[in-house]
Amino acid sequence: MSTVTESSNVVEIEGLRTRLMVGMEIHVELGTRTKMWTSAPNVAHPENFDAEPNTLIDPIVIGMPGVLPVMNREAVAMSIRVGLALGCEIARWCKWDRKSYYYPDLPKNYQISQYDLPLVGTGVLEVPVSDEPGAPTKAIRITRAHLEEDAGKLAHEAPGGRPIDYSIVDLNRAGTPLLEIVTEPDIETADQAVMFGQTLRNICRFLGVSEGIMQRGHMRFEPNINVIIERNGEEYATPVVEIKNLNSFRAVHGAIQHEHVRQVRQWLEDGKVMGPGVKQTRGWDDNKLVTVLQREKEDAHDYRYFPDPDLVPVEVSEDWLDELRATIPELPLERQKRYVDEYGLTIVQARTLTGERDVCLLFEAVIESGVEAKRAAAVLLNNLAKRANEAGVLISELAITPVQIVAIEKMAGDNQISSNGADELYGMCCADGEADPAKLAEEHRLIQVSDDSALDEWVAAAIEAEPQAADDVRNGKMAAIGRLIGAVMKVSGGQANPKVVQQKIRETLGP
Asked: Span 276-298, mean pLDDT?
């Protein structure tokens, strides 16, 4: 693939040529079994997704006096694995810092984070810019990734949706290991931002470090946006705006597009340009589809960073790094390329199959069970996808198993069932992962009959029912054979094998 090196996002707004610049901050909740600094259960682990509010806490989480944090080694390992997957430098030595601020969902009034010496350094993620074959990629530079703890969560309505005039705090999320990944402002369009986010989410899911369920806040995106405006041969950079806590790709796309236009119009009103003290944070109103001012952005000195006195530094040995490097699986973009090169799939098929980790793993399990790759892709993306869409679930969440898929494909390949019969069986097995496809085919009269004596009777009945079509075939007008095949299928109740039927009709009516 070639790499995009020149800006291609010049957009005219209010009669001015403008270019969008977006850097991303992505917060990834790591799915460790326990929290970052304590053995309290982690809400980002699948076992704890549905925990009642304020049940995943202990004295460390709620900031009781005298408690001491103990580092979660697995969270560090997961962070390093993400860094390796992104081609980033990994620090051999780093420390922990206290980031001080008061907020109701952070009981101890500081967050343990990393300031000047992050665990993960610079890297690059190549992101496809479209689904077209041979489409270029866009290089998004990774600035750093640091490990910290998440804060709790404020709710502004009571359980059950009852409105209240105060806020309530759920500390289940407080202390969750949180990897913050920061990029350079290399993103030039809202589409690129979404593609970057989807690619990063998929990498994290394939690594097994996060379930990446956006609705649960496992990944939250904060684009830092400003616009380069050209007027009269001069360029002006608008102040940077950070949009906080976006947890859907629709919100990412909408917020960036809205902010592009809003900043140009704001600049035309006040002429403010990028500089110290002018950065803002804004929220996204998903109903009105606009950004809303939250506060003027704090600078680093406002947080009063200093090294945490209760924690020792982290040292990453070469042996540990090699051990973690060996655990990196084949990542989505690599799989896509292999599916196209080795299996002959289209780039759209390959990207669809690798778009969700569990769908991709099901595809590979079907291949390993003996189904040819192109056929496996067709089954997943046609027969199973329509059932998944109807049910509102992923293909991998259907009940059907690779063993059932292999059995259905074998019956179809042996002409025991028609393509329509196979599709019916796929529908049944999508609802029952323990059903035997062969028994289902028998019970629902889907087995095709190829017995000569039965076929002779059915063909004779079809010729009697369609004499004109029979005469046409005798006279070489083979287009009419379809009417005879249809008549055979009708009289046989759909049990006749169409391929064998066609041959039998040719033999019966031929010269």
From this structure: 88
Per-residue pLDDT for 29 more than 60?
yes
477: containing domain: 452-509
SS3 129: coil
User: Are both 268 and 357 inside the same structural domain?
Assistant: no
Cα atoms in the Cβ-side hemisphere of radius 13 Å centred on 452: 2
The pair of three-digit structure tokens given for residue 186, joined into one six-digit string: 């290399």
**Average per-residue pLDDT in the chain?**
90
Q: What would the pLDDT profile of 317-335 be if each residue is shown by its tens digit? A: 999 999 999 999 999 999 9
Query: Is 435 within 8 Å of 404 (Cβ atoms)?
Result: yes
Report the predicted TM-score, pTM, of the whole model to 2 decimal places.
0.85
Residue 57 and residue 121 in one domain: yes
Same domain, 254 and 377: no
- Amino acid letter, residue 210: S
Average pLDDT over residues 144-160: 91
Q: How far apart are CA 235 and CA 229, in angstroms?
A: 5
CB contact at 8 A, 22 and 161: no
Q: How far apart are CA 128 and CA 420, in angstroms?
A: 37
- The enclosing domain of 471 has a CATH number of 1.10.10.410
